[in-house]
Amino acid sequence: xxxxxxxxxxxxxxxxxxxxxxxxxxxxxxxxxxxxxxxxxxxxxxxxxxxxxxxxxxxxxxxxxxxxxxxxxxxxxxxxxxxxxxxxxxxxxxxxxxxxxxxxxxxxxxxxxxxxxxxxxxxxxxxxxxxxxxxxxxxxxxxxxxxxxxxxxxxxxxxxxxxxxxxxxxxxxxxxxxxxxxxxxxxxxxxxxxxxxxxxxxxxxxxxxxxxxxxxxxxxxxxxxxxxxxxxxxxxxxxxxxxxxxxxxxxxxxxxxxxxxxxxxxxxxxxxxxxxxxxxxxxxxxxxxxxxxxxxx
Length: 297
Prior knowledge:
With 297 residues, the protein is of the alpha/beta class.
């Protein structure tokens, strides 16, 4: 999951009055977002689906990091935004880490904690996860017979990995991999994220850390090794909103169209359109929803 957690941004950029809208009124539903690709794209998907059902919307692209968006949501300055279960668990509530990360258990804990602490509901679960991962070239994986992190661990001491400094030190990053799978890489080379992909391309490292929705995974024709022992926290994408808005059945039915709509590979492809093809996020969202039969051209 993305690392950005900005707390210093002022709330001047968010609406000062109530944002909750209705399909027969003039009020506007304000959708916040964090500061990267899929956040913009999914925010516009939510907006387009709501607009299709008669709601007025406004998307606040790049409102801020995790805590900026979450505080804005609690205060009614935005009505919803896309979050991730692992971020809620680890960053917002700082819950104790389990020995391994079960997806269903973490989701249930997050859902309960959001409602219990802040009266916040999960409006939709799009289906993709923006998890940490270890990426390698496919021919390398075939050569060494490696498809999972368990198999990587059988040879780990002879392999090198390129990683950004945060992944190398975070307890839910590389230390967690080595703890759960019981091996240590022979060489850990820390570098800026943009340099990791060039390093593996130039055979300077055998593997790199990655995010599962990162478009560069496809750009560089890499494959993601299976985290078969669930070492990494699950970062399931969830669209969250306040409980009073969740009581609006018509609105929730509109947002429910996002449920299980986007798997991780699809989100990675949509991010590619934004990052590489430089398309506008609303256009990406619109074309995708039309292709899925959820909007009419």
